[in-house]
Amino acid sequence: MDATDTRLSKKLKPPLLHKGLLPKGHYYSLTWGIAYEFGGMTTVALERSSAFARQDNRQVEILTLSPEMKTQEREKELHAEKRIDRRVKIRNLWKDLTSWPERNLLRMVGTLDIADDAATDVLRRSGTEWSEFRKADDGTVLQIDRYHDRGHLLVTDRFDMHTRGKRKGRRITLFDRSQNIIGQWATARAFYHAWLDVVFDGKPTYLISDSSFTGALVHDYRRDNVVLCQVMHNHYLKHPKGDKLGELSSGKFEFLSHLDSFDLVTTLTDRQRLDMADANLSTDRLRTVSNLTDDLQGDPTATRDRRGGAMIARLTGQKRVDDAVNAVSKAITSGSNAQLDIYGEGPKRPILERLIRDLDVTEAVRLHGHTFGAKHKFRTASFSLLTSRFEGQGLVILESMSAGCIPIAYDCDYGPAEIINNGVDGFLIPEGDIDSCATAILRVVEMSDAELEGMRRAAMARAADFFEHPIVARWGEVLAEKAFEPIARLNDLQAHLASAVVTDDSVNLTVHMNGAGGTSQIGSGQAFVSWRTREGSFFGRVPATANHHELRASIPSLRLAPLPPGLIDISVDLVQGRSFNRSRVSSGNSRISNEAQLVALYTTAHGNLSARIGLQA
Fold first, then answer.
1. β-strand partners of 200
2. Angle at CA 387, nearest 5°, toward 386 and 388?
3. pLDDT at 6
4. What is the structure's pLDDT at 335?
5. Cβ contact 476:524 at 8 Å
6. Edge-to-edge strand order for the sheet containing 365-369?
7. Which parts of 13-101 are beta strand (E)?
8. Cα separation of 31 and 29, whole Å?
9. What does the DSSP 8-state code read for residue 608?
10. DSSP state of 187
11. Within a 13 Å sphere around the CA of 385, how many CA atoms are in the beta-carbon half?
């Protein structure tokens, strides 16, 4: 074998032999970036990717979009820290663009007609940094030029395309080495999609989006070869204690109002899945897939100070760490000598420090800040506390149980009640009940050794249900339900109002549908009338019945009554298989009959159907 053959043999590694736990395809996770002090969502994404790699013997790539990661070596660092499996790769958009050979850059397909003036509308390079900025007097960024590693201009990104100096209108331009324009895009989202197309290269792909931000970027990234999944890491409502039909989380609003544009949306608990289904946010996209937890190999017989508790939580209002501090103080007052070590950082730290001093528990309650590997503290702690207002699931409960540490948790939405068997492997406390939390601490402190050992064994056995293999197997099940079937894009879909009658009880609509493929979609799929507020993050929809080209729907006034005074826009949603198409309803005022006080339909200046809520027409 000559030198050339030797080099080729090193490059052409044999493909990994997968174990069949996951369906065939290429696997990617998408997130904005991986900070040096990251929280639970990033932890879950890294651990899931590593579990996919270990359990199914496959390579998984974590895709990142942050420009900051271009100059970082996060993959090497995370491998060195053993935070990710050796088969997990970290890939960054900007590292690709600045290091790719030109043949790869030329595969980036623009979405705008080429405007040649972009080639001269560039900033003078002032140094050796890879980015140059133009800013307004107030510091607002108006233009960013990015440079290739070899020194020539790569991208110019203007944010003031409408009026120079005022941030409105965008144009991203990609150049080749000769400074010829390869492509242009009007949004970062379209630019990211072009990169994803090159990365996936038409291959069967499973793409899992973890953050709300990336979910908003890719909900309309629909490719026949890509099964698109969004993970719900937290509550879907802005006010989790309110009605399940209430205002959606503002940070998640963009993707929550387009859930049927994904192939799969996973929730961490059955209760959240059912609540979201009851709210008609999705047809059949929702599945429950729990977080996984490490086998922390707790020892139920190890000697532990039964008074010692541990808590891992961000110091924020959601986590209500002050309730935990108060509960420990009450337990101490009752003679328990309980202690609590709190691991985490956040804006509430000064308030908690003052509370600890005021309660005179400085010797018993200790704030350790952000601590790498804090979950291993559960191996020596006797009990753990979770006092959150709401959770996506409560990963720390699983970590605590895996380590043989008895969890004491508020019965909040979502998660604790689906993990803990009260009194068997942990304690469920009425949400917000500090006295009951203190009582549970006392119970742990006063238990016999045999009772404690039995509960620790039960906790470890329950945690095993959430170890890597069963959770990856569950992912395999839900992903295998999805096929790489063609997606119908009804670009000519039109919805025209035939009639609308508004009464005190309901808004009754008849809509005529036109557009290529519209009839088949209506006949064999599902149809809805949807609405969204112009202010805030309210969204809702009701099923519609179909007869040939005609849709009929009735919106109960009770669905609209909770909306704040203001304007809402009305659309039609068509769902069939993997396909999701939404069209605003066009209208004329002559087709509208307003006979109610709460709601008044009207036709906008652009000829579309909208409504005034709590305002007179």
1. none
2. 100
3. 45
4. 87
5. no
6. 365-369, 339-343, 308-312, 383-386, 406-410, 427-429
7. 26-31, 60-64, 88-92
8. 7
9. B
10. S
11. 37
CB 64, CB 37: distance < 8 Å: no
| Rounded distance between C-alpha atoms, residue 438 and residue 333, angstroms | 10
Q: For residue 427, give the nearest of 459, 396, 474 by alpha carbon.
A: 459
* Token couple for 419: 């993990």
- Kindly report the pTM of this predicted structure: 0.91
- Residue 274 structure tokens: 């059912």
Region 368-372: what's the mean pLDDT? 91
Per the CB < 8 A criterion, the answer to whether 235 and 272 are in contact is: yes
Backbone angles phi, psi at 397, to 5 degrees: -65, -45
If we measure between CA atoms, which residue out of 126, 183, 134 comes closest to residue 154?
183
Domains and CATH numbers, the chain: 3-97+193-288 (3.40.50.2000), 112-185 (no CATH), 308-465 (3.40.50.2000), 494-613 (2.60.40.10)
| Cβ-based neighbour number of residue 274 at 10 Å | 14
Cβ atoms of residues 224 and 47 within 8 Å? no
Which of the four pLDDT bands, split at 50, 70 and 90, describes residue 439?
Answer: very high
Q: What is the mean pLDDT of residues 130-151?
A: 94
- Cβ–Cβ under 8 Å, residues 215 and 192: no
Q: Compute the distance between CA of residue 240 and CA of residue 183 in angstroms, rounded to an integer.
A: 44
The letter for the amino acid at 16 is L
CA 176 to chain centroid, in Å, comes to: 34
Q: At what angle do helices 40-56 and 395-402 cross, to 10 degrees?
A: 60
| Pairwise CA distance, residues 176 & 481, whole Å | 42
In DSSP terms, 77 is beta-bridged to none
Q: Are 411 and 431 in contact (CB under 8 A)?
A: yes
350 to each of 315, 316, 371, how far by Cα in Å? 10, 11, 18
C-alpha span between 535 and 524 (Å, rounded) = 34
Rounded distance, CA 538 to CA 408, Å? 35
Spell out where 487-538 has E strands. 494-502, 506-514, 526-533
| C-beta separation of 485 from 224 below 8 A | yes
Residue type, 614: G
- What is Dmax (Cα atoms) for the chain? 87
Residues with Cβ within 8 Å of residue 194, at least 6 apart in sequence: 108, 109, 110, 111, 183, 185
Token couple for 15: 């493909």
**CA–centroid distance for 614 within its chain:** 33
Strands of 171-175's sheet in order across: 131-135, 141-147, 153-158, 171-175, 181-185
Residue 125 tokens, joined:
């390079």
Is 114 strand, coil or helix? coil
Q: Cα 503 vs. chain centroid, distance in angstroms? A: 39
Contacts of 102 (CB under 8 A, 6+ apart): 176, 177
d(CA 204, CA 58) in angstroms, rounded, equals 14
Q: What is the DSSP letter of 489?
A: -
Return the percent helix, strand and coil in the chain, to nearest 5: 30, 30, 40
Interval 69-103: pLDDT, tens: 999 999 999 999 999 999 999 999 999 999 999 99
Tell me, letter by letter, the H, E, C secondary structure of 361-424. CCCCEEEEECCCCHHHHHHCCCEEEECCCECCCCHHHHHHHHCCCEEEEECCECCHHHHCCECC
CA distance 237 to 537: 10
> Which tokens is 365 given?
């309650």
